[in-house]
Write a structure and sequence with these properties.
This protein has about 280 residues and is of the alpha+beta class. The strands form 4 sheets. Strands 7, 8, 9, 10, 13, 14, 15, 16 and 17 form a 9-stranded mixed sheet that branches. It is elongated.
Amino acid sequence: MALDSSHYNEQDIIAGKYPSDHFTMRLQRFLARAGVASRRGSEKLISAGRVCVNGKQVRVLGTKVMPQYDHVTVDGKEYVLGNDHVYLLLNKPSQVLTTMSDPFGFPCVASLVPCDDYPGLFPVGRLDSDTTGVLLFTTNGNMGNRLLHPSHHVWKTYVALIEGKLTSSQMQKLSQGIMLEDGMTSPCFIRTITQDEPCTHLDKNHSLFDDMRLNAASSLCELKIHEGRNHQVKRMLQEIGHPVIKLHRFQFGPLCLNAQIPLGSWRMCTQQEIHDLETVCEDNT
């Protein structure tokens, strides 16, 4: 007999209060991840009355199900979630929105990854439109939510091309935490770097360096944070008088992109990277 999924919610699972097999998700998301149709296509199936949960017809969008206990059928055929989730890394280019669709027609990351091959694929977190770099996609909602939860944020490393030159006192101020309009930031790691430094993980021909060649007053810095506030890196550097010209994220937790993955391209995560992600989630529970 199916358990009453109303006893549990997504935030409970993220916080680790209940085992993952009690995890609930919206019915249209379940159908998409089970490979029935896209999220939007799944909504049409529900509205048309073709979907049943535990033998009862469901027409209400947003109905939640427990994948491990509820029986979901479409036109009488039962569907279940597979155990094999998909994990891939996109090297996000500039001027692309981190969203799966945009009502105004702006370019979105969904057009750069194989959504049709892997229904339910979604980005873990977001990057600003003009920020480039590593963006994780997965069909594993439980892991994605854990990686983004405020109490479990993973470290993220950026290279920023900024106006002016950072001083030692400014870097110390940032590293200890700086007051922004939404509160004090947590301590971070920051250092200045050079274009020829190999540990930047960037090819010397990366577009970040184009402006540096044109503007002798600009400089590069590497900044590592574990919070996830909106525009945080840009706001931190703006606060100390060094506006960001360009920003690139080259590491997200244990995941790192190198120059072999061109902007706008993606690759599957390796088994070692998936294992490392699972370890991060376990360590943060």
